[in-house]
């Protein structure tokens, strides 16, 4: 049972790789005790101090959230408490998305970015790449980014009233998607400021990664989320 | 974690933070590098499908219905298993044009089937960019002795299994995802239940064994020792495992989830039923809320007629498919 000092982190468990996040969180060794809960109902969500939206299929997760009556409560949660989206979760936290299914896609919003689904193309283009990430423990040691049918960040555009966006990891321009009609190719793929290179960022207490830290045995991203996003929000 | 990363199939699923990448990624001196088609990204996509429903579709319109109903992926094929069974003849890979139309129509992953052992059909599907290949007993086998060497492909494979030995043989050939065989095209879940119970029972036995016993058990199962040892350590298959073959109702889907599956395939059960969109959505919800009988009761209401089921017997029309390839 959670006590007053424990931190409860929920993982949205509609569909996708939610169990993987839970296993890593349960093994974290940090000063505050982290309690995890799989979120499928309103009651589950109300217990949470923070939330992770896992990888999976964003259309499926959004539909199931709507059918469970969770879509509006989730939007309200995102306005108040820290949320981390990985891959499909990153799409759901975007303020807008391109390449969505016909008829559009429901989003939660919360982070001022526009993303494109399946930025690199089909599964045969999925890849792993070593990333240097600002602010991680042992930050000189690269973090293995696992990109699976990953989204691409097309633009970052917070308004003056919103918290600034802080980019914490980028891919090399050489790894940018090629021959993707969805993504404008008007640049020569060499500008390191190109937002399409951005694969991890923060805005306020929110965290967004287009890859899957939960598919590695490296817990540094989960530790980072708790330390940098969740704990400061509790003060 | 003290185990080595010797086998790519140590990539895991539930219960263990997965994926020893097949090759370590490092920043090389020559600049950035990336690895495409590692076992990590192959099994990783299966992990993203967990808790989801993969639906058989035969055209772009059905694929759109499936996507709208919340399918996490679709299986593109010309005939659903019930029709293959009824019509007979040799069942082969589908027309690439039809598969490409389905890829164009949806944003979710698209899978397609090849005949057991038919590695050229697999080369063709990889070339047109499908997201997953099912080396499937539902099609007529092209090779009665050998399965495809799946390690040599960038595209990941799912394979059927009736028991733990068969599952581990497929994983050792490179499958990144396992499903029960069940008995496709029957609307009868009994064989899928049999296969899932067989796998889980053997996993529980392995879990209690010491190394000497595991060596002997590996011999009995005709499975590689190192994979069996990994199963014993993880207390589950080292890759994602779904139910398939004969599921027709939300209750069938929730049953397979409670028996330990990570998600479900529904083949003929959706588009041969009275109201495909409604049934598809109900099955999607059943997989998420599989442990909540109250929600299961609500979503099972008023779905219209389910597909007509068949009793499974050796001389049934179309024969028994699960025995193909072992």
From TrEMBL, chain A:
GO biological process annotation, one example: pyridoxine metabolic process
Primary enzyme class: hydrolase
UniProt KW keywords: Glutamine amidotransferase, Hydrolase, Lyase, Transferase
Pfam families associated with the record: SNO (PF01174)
Binding annotation for L-glutamine: 56-58, 117, 148-149
Gene Ontology cellular component annotations, sorted alphabetically: cytosol; glutaminase complex
UniProt key word Hydrolase: yes
Enzyme Commission number(s): 3.5.1.2
SUPFAM superfamilies: Class I glutamine amidotransferase-like
Coiled coil: none
Protein name listed in UniProt: glutaminase
UniProtKB/TrEMBL annotation, chain B:
Keywords associated with the record: Lyase, Pyridoxal phosphate, Schiff base
Domain PdxS/SNZ N-terminal: 39-244
Lyase is among the record's keywords: yes
EC number, as in UniProt: 4.3.3.6
GO biological process: amino acid metabolic process; pyridoxal phosphate biosynthetic process; pyridoxine biosynthetic process
Top EC class, one word: lyase
Biased composition (Polar residues): 25-34
Catalysis: reaction(s): aldehydo-D-ribose 5-phosphate + D-glyceraldehyde 3-phosphate + L-glutamine = pyridoxal 5'-phosphate + L-glutamate + phosphate + 3 H2O + H(+)
Domain of life: Eukaryota
Pathway: Cofactor biosynthesis; pyridoxal 5'-phosphate biosynthesis
Gene3D superfamilies: Aldolase class I (3.20.20.70)
Region described as Disordered: spans on this chain: 1-34
InterPro entries: Aldolase_TIM, PdxS/SNZ, PdxS/SNZ_N, RibuloseP-bd_barrel
Family: Belongs to the PdxS/SNZ family.
Protein name: pyridoxal 5'-phosphate synthase (glutamine hydrolyzing)
């Amino acid at each position: 049972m959670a006590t007053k000092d424990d931190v409860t982190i929920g993982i949205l468990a509609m569909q996708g790789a939610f169990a993987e996040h839970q296993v890593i969180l349960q093994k974290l060794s940090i000063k505050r005790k982290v309690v995890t809960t799989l979120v499928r109902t309103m009651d589950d969500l109300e217990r949470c101090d923070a939330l992770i939206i896992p990888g999976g299929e964003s259309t499926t997760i959004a539909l199931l959230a709507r059918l469970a009556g969770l879509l509006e409560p989730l939007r309200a949660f995102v306005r108040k408490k820290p949320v981390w989206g990985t891959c499909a979760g990153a799409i759901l936290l975007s303020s807008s998305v391109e390449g969505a299914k016909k008829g559009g896609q429901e989003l939660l919003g919360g982070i001022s970015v526009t993303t494109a689904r399946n930025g690199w193309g089909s599964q045969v283009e999925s890849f792993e790449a070593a990333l240097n990430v600002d602010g991680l423990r042992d930050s000189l040691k690269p973090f293995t980014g696992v990109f699976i049918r990953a989204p691409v960040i097309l633009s970052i555009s917070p308004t003056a009233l919103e918290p600034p966006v802080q980019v914490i990891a980028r891919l090399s321009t050489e790894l940018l998607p090629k021959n993707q009609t969805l993504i404008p190719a008007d640049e020569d793929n060499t500008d390191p400021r190109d937002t399409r290179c951005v694969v991890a960022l923060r805005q306020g207490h929110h965290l967004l990664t287009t890859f899957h830290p939960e598919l590695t045995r490296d817990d540094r991203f989960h530790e980072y989320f708790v330390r940098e996003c969740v704990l400061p929000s509790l003060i | 974690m003290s185990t080595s990363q010797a086998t790519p199939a140590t990539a895991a699923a539930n219960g263990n933070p997965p994926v020893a990448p097949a090759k370590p990624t490092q920043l090389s001196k020559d600049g950035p590098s990336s690895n495409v088609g590692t076992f990590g990204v192959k099994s990783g996509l299966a992990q993203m499908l967990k808790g989801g429903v993969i639906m058989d579709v035969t055209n772009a319109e059905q694929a759109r219905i499936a996507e709208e109903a919340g399918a996490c992926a679709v299986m593109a094929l010309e005939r659903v298993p019930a029709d293959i069974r009824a019509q007979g003849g040799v069942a082969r890979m589908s027309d690439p044009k039809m598969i490409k139309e389905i890829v164009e129509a949806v944003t979710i992953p698209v899978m397609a089937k090849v005949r057991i052992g038919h590695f050229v059909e697999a080369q063709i599907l990889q070339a047109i960019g499908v997201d997953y290949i099912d080396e499937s007993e539902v099609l007529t086998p092209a090779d009665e002795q050998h399965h495809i060497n799946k390690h040599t492909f960038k595209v990941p494979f799912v394979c059927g299994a009736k028991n733990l030995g068969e599952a581990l043989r497929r994983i050792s050939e490179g499958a990144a995802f396992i499903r029960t065989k069940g008995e496709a095209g029957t609307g009868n879940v009994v064989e899928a239940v049999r296969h899932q119970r067989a796998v889980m029972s053997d996993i529980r036995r392995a879990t209690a064994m010491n190394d000497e016993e595991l060596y002997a058990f590996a011999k009995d199962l005709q499975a590689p020792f190192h994979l069996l040892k990994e199963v014993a350590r993880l207390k589950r298959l080292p890759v994602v495992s779904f139910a398939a073959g004969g599921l027709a109702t939300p209750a069938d889907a929730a049953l397979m989830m409670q028996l330990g599956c990570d998600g479900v395939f529904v083949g003929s059960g959706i588009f041969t039923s009275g109201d495909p969109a409604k049934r598809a959505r109900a099955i999607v919800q059943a997989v998420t809320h599989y442990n909540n009988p109250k929600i299961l009761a609500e979503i099972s209401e008023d779905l219209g007629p389910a597909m007509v089921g068949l009793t499974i017997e050796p001389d049934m029309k179309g024969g028994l498919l699960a025995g193909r390839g072992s």
